[in-house]
Automatic annotation (TrEMBL):
Residues 1-64 form the Divergent 4Fe-4S mono-cluster domain. This is Ferredoxin. It comes from Streptomyces fuscus. The keyword Iron-sulfur applies. Ferredoxins are iron-sulfur proteins that transfer electrons in a wide variety of metabolic reactions.
Amino acid sequence: MRIEADPEVCIGSGMCALTAPDLFDQSEADGTVVVLSPEPPAARVAAVQGAVSRCPSRALTLRES
């Protein structure tokens, strides 16, 4: 799986970083999403799905590799 983020859509709520801080962070410059691990381990699928579903602006997408 691969995580894709659209910083143009991101509103910087930080739900992704709160849900999975090992996978997401926020830019120091503008607070938008930073994907730390674009291809996370299979053991973190539930965390990624949680972050994607909690994103209020729908800036995150989870794609199959």
